[in-house]
Amino acid sequence: MVAPGSRAERKGDVEETRHFAMTGERIFWVFGRRGPTDAMEQIGQVKAASEAIAYVYARANYRERAWRDLAVVPRDSFYRPGLDADEPALAERTLR
After folding, report:
1. pTM score
2. Residues of the chain where predicted confidence (pLDDT) is lower than 50
3. Dihedral of the CA atoms 54, 52, 56, 68 (nearest 10)?
4. Which residue of 16, 39, 50, 54 pairs with 72 in a disulfide if CB–CB is 3.0 to 4.6 A?
């Protein structure tokens, strides 16, 4: 049984899980920083089997600018209040 609002219930996550099961690839968000004092900004996403391969894909795909720092983070490692909470009532109180 799946809890309402849980990750496995959402359509996009089901498709992502299916894609991973078939190909072994995960979605990684790509973040970059142009200067030493600039904030990291999300610049895109890549699909890859591991963090190392995702980093190589990110370097190849987002080389149009000279990024000082580039980072890849698995999309499923982010906590999204109200969507990932085990207890929907707790998520509602948090968002108010």
Report:
1. 0.63
2. 1-9
3. 100
4. 54
